[in-house]
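## retry 2 of 3
previous attempt timed out at serialization; input unchanged, resubmitting
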Amino acid sequence: MQSFLEEVVFELSQEYDSLEDVIFVLPSKRAGTFLRNIIAANTTQTSFAPIIYSIEEFVEIISGLTYASNTQQLFQLYAAYLQNTTTEKDNFFTFSKWGQTLLQDFNEIDRYLIDAKKLFSNLADIQEINHWSQGEITPMIQKYITFWNNLYQLYFDFNTTLLDQGLGHQGLVYRHACEELENYLAKTENKTHAFIGFNALNTAETHIIQTLLKAEKNTIYWDIDSCFLNDPIHDAGFFIRKHLNTWSYFKKTDLKGISTNYNTKKDIQITGVPKNISQAKYVGSLLQKINIESPEDLKKTALILGEEGLLNPILNSIPKEIDAVNITMGYPLNKAPVASLFIDFFELYLYRDPRGWFHQNIVSFLSHPYITTLLRPEESKNNQSLATHIKRKNWTYITIPKIQSISTNTKLDLLFFEHQPSPKQFITYCLEIISELKLRFLETQNNLGLEYLYQFHTLFNQILELVQKYSFINDLKSLQSIFEELLSSETVDFQGDPLEGLQIMGMLESRNLDFETVIITSVNEGILPSGKSNNSFIPFDLKTALGLPTYKEKDAVYTYHFYRLLQRAKTIHIIYNTEPDVLEGREKSRLIAQLQTDSLRIPDIKEKVISPAVQPIVQKLECIQKDNGLMALIKNHAQKGFSPTSLCNYIRNPIDFYKRNLLGIEDILEVEETVAANTFGTIVHDTLEDLYTPFVGDYLSKEGLTKVKSKIQPLVKKHFIKTYMNGNIDHGKNLIAKHVIERYIESFINQEIEEIKNHKIKIISLEDKLNVTLDVPGIDFEVILKGKLDRIDEKDGVLRIIDYKTGKVESKNVEIVDWEEVTTNYDRSKAFQLLCYAFMFNGKKTVTSIETGIISFKNLKAGLLRFATKEKKGSRKKDYPITQETLSLFYDELKTLIQEICNSEIPFTEKEV
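## retry succeeded, writing output
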């Protein structure tokens, strides 16, 4: 089967001895490459190659103008806007958000040769009617109506300014080409024009082509199947049927290029795949299968990406065995690693707080791989130490002096500066960073990185030229807007042989090209077709009345391209996303539904839904065998001393004890933006120690406690500064935490004052560090139990050990019924700790009876929550004193626990949550 372009070349070759005087005009440059190759393959004698233009190049040549870049247009439009607006003007950043829409409308107006004055007059009238009011028109409404009334003048001035510079947006170039058409015809009267493979044409293109077709030597070929052309409602033939009915040319000339290939036998597989990455992986498996069965077929295969964002995952999914791949679309520059570097760099200075940079922004910026590259290899650790210093010093906000105090790396001067840079200065800094990175990449021969840097160097120089030319880019926000605008439209172009290997392209790049195997991805509503997007200031009804295209025409364009790909293909894979969302399209496309109801195609269609193979994950409890190395760690820990907290870690989960207490793996070092629970507790403990130290050895008195209340605020502040380091406590949640601590301590002292009215309380010691050696049968090394007792006092002759807790504790947490639960149930961990304290105190000084309890600052009303034993659950009878018998029962359980920890035959096994 011949391709469409081969059929056209064959037919023209029959008509002309040589094609060197033929000017070919095609929808895209891509098709021109294939056409040139086909002409060369079918030429039997030496001749000059014919001229081949894309339609945009052709129109540009006729007009004599040059296409202005989108950025040039936006700047020029804003300059015209400033001249035409007498009321309050939007700054450039705000303007750029709606200016793009206005540019699109200007472009449409000129491409379709609309009477702009009439259109804008109607548009202004519509807006005035929308805001009609019987009452007085407010200044805001008046300003709004004035804006719409001024649009024509803005359009006129904008176009005039571009024409004065020999430039034009696409629509203006098309309109000017229509005006210059007679001059062009005079210059090319000896040439033959062949228009190939067009479908949807705007009014300007229609005028140009019809004018040229008046000369009989010029011709046009349509790439469509008679099946769609003869169907009066099929959208694939919508535009060509319209041309056939409205062009005078077809009253005496038949359509050329019509084929009958769609009716041939085809293998159509419609496959539903969940999400984008799964689509990419599935495509990879299809290509692997094609490559194994017939590697030559890859040269006749096209991979059409409905969603161009799939390019990167697709490239990573192509089998390694496929070495020849040609990509028509470019790789978006905003996906390059260096793009995120400059985006972060912008944000550093756009969102800098008067107090300095927020720590997360700095740490994130320093973690960027290109920042590590920027610093010299021997200084790379300095970069890491900077982030580590920030965390250790608990800096929530970082200033230049702070950075200088912990790092002497001169390259940091390229990144951090005290003043807020102007747009011109900022671009200069960016170019300096690029220059430094270039040197690093040259050393490491990072060619791809160098290509990215070159693109960004060009980009920033382009922006610098615009900033110097236009004075309204006077702040970083506007500069960022321009940077992101350019970044979104720039690509890194791939270089390859367009005639070899697997072809990867977008839907529009496939125009006029035919392949035996076609794979189309993301065939979902909102993508193929793109849906009812209406990014325009011109209402739907006005567009319809004046002949401007709407989403209906856009849908017909997508339908044509979709079915044109199917015309000559033998094997077709249509892939859609079964789990769509707003970003990845909606349900499967209506194009699939239309295909499934086509009686001609139903026998050829195979439909399936697939998903990645999911292996059930069996949650296995982690189990660590105790080898010699681990036993050495256990022995070392036992000799240093088990603390009640470490033993509680074991009771909660032996793996936690293994990781935290034996391996020393602590929580990740992070900056405390707000006071953490452990910091909160430390401040409370330290403040209480300072307040009660004067009472050690004495009885508490009302006068003494009342006096120390005045010291609460300065002591809390002192310990905040010491424990929270450089954290800010002057506002926000930290200020609230400070006041909460002050209130906690004041309420506790008030409670103590009330209690000593009826009781005598003597402070014996504070923060008493104790340890005791344990005699554990079966363990041949020393085992120590150590701990720190917050407070030991005597109440009416009863010795008490008191532990402070800033968290919520209830009486049930410190009461025991079954002694085995003390070392097996983590809910009894508070009781376990109190028994440990009593046991250690007894080792220092044997006691006949002692009480222990917890002061819970979140449950102060409950008073001292005393340890107690009960005969059974729910019993109101509680025994509070801890006697030698109680300690003996506890010691038996404690020995069993430590024997388990130190037994090499019993592994550390994770507990189920």
